[in-house]
Each structure stands twice: as C-alpha cells, then as structure tokens.
Amino acid sequence: MAETIYALILMRRHIWLYAEFQLIFSSEIDRQQALDTLNRTILLFDYATYDVTNEYQRLIKLDLMESIKLLDVVEANVAEIAGNWAACVRKDKRTVHYHDIPKEKLMSQAIKFYNHLRSLLVEPDRFEKAHEFFRQYAETCYNNNIPLHESVYALNVMRRHMWLQAEFQDIFINALAHHQAVDSLMRIMLMMDYAMFDITKFYQDRSQ
C-alpha cells in the first residue's frame, strides 16, 4: 500500500515537473488562479489517497475474513481432526514414543493447538502468543520423554491433518482467491517456522 500511495504522489509531482506546465503556470495565470489550481489538485489527490487506502483496508479485511472461514472449519471439526491426528501418531513409525500414550491425552494436546490457531494466526500479538504456546508445547513433550525429532514431526502432522479435513479443502480451493490462499498458507508456514525454532531451542537449553 505504501508504494501505491507514493506512486500516486509521484504522478502529482510529475505534473508540476513538466516544463510546459511550469511555464504556463508561472507566466499566464495570476496568483489567485494559481492558488485555485493548486487547491483543486491537492484536493483531488487527498480524495485519491482516501479512496486508495480505503480500498486496501477493505481488501485486507476480506482476506482476513476468508482466512477466518478456514479457522471456523477447523474449530467446528476440531474433535475429528484431533482424533485423526492422535490415531496417526500412535501408529506412525516416526513417532514411536507416542504409541503408548492414551488417545484421549493426545487428543487434548491437538485440540489445544487447533483451538489456539485463531490467536496464533490473526491477532495483533500473535508472535508473542505463538512463542509462549510452542514453548509450552515443547515443555509438555519434553516432560513426556518425547525426543525432539518426534515432537517436531508430530506438530507437522497436526498441520497436515488440518489440511486433510475435507471441508477445509473445499473452502480453501473453491472459496478463496489465489492471493488469499497464498496469504493463508504463508501465515501458517511462518507460524510453523517459529514453532520449530522455539521447540528446538527449548530442547537445546535443557540439554546444556
């Protein structure tokens, strides 16, 4: 948005920089006419700035609303998604330390993750909340004697099962414009990048 506004300002500036415009403006228009022309031009660009920024805000809100639709789907199906995740990690050869943990206990961990997605993805202080959430996730895994590589993989599987939910895929594919889909993906990928950092750092600190 900042570049769009600046480009608009440059349009106005290049009107003034045009040599013939300056010649006419300085030679043939009296002071009152010059002032009137200036005021009209400034007013025009003031309205333009308002309209451009207002449209950007509308589009941002639209993107956010579409992203929230995806979160609504996750929250509406949280028990099913968490159950599928728990069943998966209890038999996956890459998460052997999860195999003997009761499914109900695992589901509560996944439900907590899915129910916190909204605050982790869209709230203004999401980075601080994500840091604290994944620190707690790492602490829980560590206290349950889950190795680092399994705790990280299990979290990735949580994300995967969110995408595998059929209704989630339908909304993501059919209801979102391409740039909205990319925005949602980037938000989740960024969150998971921070999660990997926080989890591995927690384990590393405990090993020193």
Indicate the topology:
Elements: H1 2-17, H2 19-27, H3 31-76, H4 78-89, H5 103-115, H6 117-121, H7 126-143, H8 148-164, H9 166-174, H10 178-207
Structure characterization notes:
With 208 residues, the protein is an all-alpha fold. The protein has 2 domains: 57 residues; 142 residues, Orthogonal Bundle (Globin-like), CATH 1.10.490.10. The protein contains 10 helices and no strands. Helix 3 packs antiparallel against helix 9 and helix 8 runs antiparallel to helix 10. The two termini are 46 Å apart. The mean pLDDT is 75.
Brief characterization of the structure:
The chain has 208 residues and is mostly helical.
How many DSSP-defined strands? Answer: 0
- Straight-line distance between termini: 46 Å
Q: What is the residue-averaged pLDDT?
A: 75
Give me the CATH fold name of the largest domain: Globin-like
Structural shape: elongated
CATH class division of the largest domain: Mainly Alpha
Task: Tell me the series of helices and strands, N- to C-terminal.
Answer: HHHHHHHHHH
Helix content: over 70%
Largest sheet, strands/sense/barrel = none
**Helix run count:** 10
CATH architecture verdict of the largest domain: Orthogonal Bundle
Into how many domains do the coordinates divide? Answer: 2
CATH homologous group name of the largest domain: Globins
Tell me the radius of gyration.
Answer: 27 Å
What would you call the structural class?
Answer: mainly alpha
Our estimate of the beta-strand percent is under 5%
Instruction: Report the uncertain regions.
Output: none
